[in-house]
Amino acid sequence: MKVLYASSEAYPFAMSGGLADVAGALPKALRRRLIGCRVVMPLYSTISDELREKMTFVTSITVPVSWRRQYCGVFEAHIDGVIYYLIDNQYYFKRDSLYGFYDDAERFAFFSRAVLEILPHIGFKPDIIHCNDWQTALIPVFLNEFYRSADLYKDIKTVFTIHNIQYQGKYGKELYGDVLGLPAGRESLLEYDGCINFMKGAIQCADKVTTVSPTYSREILYPYFSHGLDGILKQFTYKLTGIVNGIDYDVYNSETDPMIYKNFTIDSLEDKAYNKSSLQKEVGLPEGDDIPLIGIVTRLVKHKGIDLVKHVFEELLENDLQFVILGSGEWEFETFFHEMAAKYPEKVALKLGFIPSLAHKIYAGADMFLMPSQSEPCGLAQMVALRYGTIPIVRKTGGLNDTISDCGDGVGNGFTFADYNAHEMMYSIRRALEEYKDKEAWRVLTKRAMEYNSSWASSASLYIGLYRELSGKR
Ligand code: GLC
Question: Which pTM does this prediction carry?
């Protein structure tokens, strides 16, 4: 079985969010199961020289973008047993970040065409093309419209994974002919609510649509979660399924992680305590093992539940606890936490930005990890926290609901609350603080968290099952 995994970002080349983690880890897990999975992504100018040195030039071709023909260089790199194809075009990808440009629609229309156009030139004929999010959503559309009749393409099946339904690739209708070059009379492929909607096209044209957790696959059928797409999803529920992500055990491993202060295992939790005091010292909080330390690593935006945290923050600070917060985002939240850190320096430490090494230190050093998301397609941080024995406090939504269960029942691995309500969140934080006082109970919970299996192995099996069902191949 051969799978071409198309993604606009992948660890270690380019990262802006969880998609990069998944695109870095799932292909590796599939390779371990002897599935021939290769990855294709853009060659952004932000990719480091160190990684560029691992690339070799394969070929160059031209790719149609409506009436234009654009240069497309293909490079290849081998990382951890996985082959990556990197699509080069400096006009589209020599930018100082991945997304957010006036011509994003054209950039990813080019990339999507390129993924299909390179197939005769790379000596790899996939049975499945696995597309991810709006940036690669045009692949199933283009495949059906332009390539189906050719032998090489006629049996290829497509899977489209929604990592976050909020970003759909919505543009004005004028792009239909001039940028996408799709034939007149077929506008209904992409039109939705008066716009061109890339994700809608993929939902319609892909053979399977998946989301990154079973709960989220049900949630997005409701307007509260669907950002307008529930109508089209309801027409295609027969091809919609949810498979929860795993995390990369090579990267997130308390025993080997070079970014944390001291490695530890389930049998050396005293070394986790060392990580806590080192973290307190580094971020300028008073050191003390008895003060519960709550970590937050997130984009500081509303749908991550940060408005709930803001709403009851000062009330929460009346408890004996500390917060270490890492992230950046909306001005309202950045300034709020900035103010709080200045007002309560003994209790609140804030670092603005995306700092992977500090994130790892927080996963390892905090006692609890707060994720009160309004919606969360899967969420990876809660699983990383578990792996480092840091107990998640989460709202029961999406992947948080599928990976974290409340320890109140004696078997769960975290603390959960159901309603999007600041006081409900506060109540579960207080339950965690109470539980923390019982050192023995907390140790049991910590061990249970660390034993939770969030490796890619079982999710990779589910994807393999899906690929087999579609392709009829082993
Ligand atoms: C997106 C989602 C997140 C998910 C990740 C990887 O970033 O917001 O919940 O874990 O994609 O699938």
Answer: 0.95
